[in-house]
């Protein structure tokens, strides 16, 4: 395995990049980080043996009944390198007048770009998976139809699907920003709070979490440019008009059920959380290069731990 060079590591900018995380990104809520000391490896997958019915009767003097042999499969991960860099020309530095330095501004930009691509990857893995149960809403079933739809009943009715699919009750509801706009104005939702104070004039995320019986109600607001470089910007929502009900464990670890995991290779410098920012001089271009790099692999672990509502609103 090749070593990752840390000769040009800028510890200040690295620490800054670890702290700086765009809160609009929610992919990490569904596929949390799992730090690993190895770039690639395998992890065990256990079955549902403990849920089967067994004969537990034991006659006097008889031996205890023995469970069948272990049945365990495994899967593998490989943390691909992700990197982005940008030059800070000396001319730009000499004219820089913003309160934050160009190195910090550049680090924010590079971290945002890397995280945005991870967000899109996780979105595509969930929305394009044939293994994750779900439904595409249309017409009067869409939650933007205030006269005919019932989002509370729709979400509540699939909780058992997740419990039966992964043995855990869902605890997280992620909705795209357009979906949230419709939910906070839906008569059935608002009616549930008619005798409850709503300081904002609409239900808070905490109130909606209680309504939908989840620990976390997450509004996905992250954006991306739908056009290529050189073409005028057209922004759109990464998570679109969709909603995902899921079970996500309180923390990543062994012997757990999880919808997805982001394996992140620490490559020998765990104090940096698997993220490095390098700064080095490029004399022939008269500038300083800032390079952000990390290694990770997003894995869909337990498809049954989620249920997807596609096109939840018109």
Task: Write out key terms for the chains shown.
single chain; 314 residues; alpha+beta; phage-related protein like fold; five-stranded mixed beta sheet; 9 helices
Structural features, described:
With 314 residues, the protein is an alpha+beta fold. The chain has one domain (30-48, 75-310): phage-related protein like domain (phage-related protein like fold, Alpha-Beta Complex). The protein has nine helices and 14 strands. The protein has helices at residues 11-19, 27-30, 90-95, 102-127, 151-156, 159-166, 177-183, 187-191, 205-211, and strands at residues 33-36, 40-46, 72-78, 80-89, 134-136, 172-176, 216-220, 223-225, 235-237, 243-246, 260-265, 275-282, 287-300, 306-310. The strands form four sheets. Strands 1, 4, 11, 12 and 13 form a five-stranded mixed β-sheet that branches. Strand 12 (275-282) and strand 13 form a beta hairpin. The longest helix has 26 residues, at 102-127. It is flat, with a radius of gyration of 24 Å.
Q: Give the terminus-to-terminus CA distance.
A: 50 Å
CATH architecture: Alpha-Beta Complex
- Proportion of helical residues: 10-25%
Count of alpha/pi helices: 9
How many domains in all? Answer: 1
The CATH class, by name, is Alpha Beta
Largest sheet: 5 strands, mixed
> In percent terms, what proportion of residues is strand?
25-35%
- CATH homologous superfamily assignment: phage-related protein like domain
Query: What is Rg?
Result: 24 Å
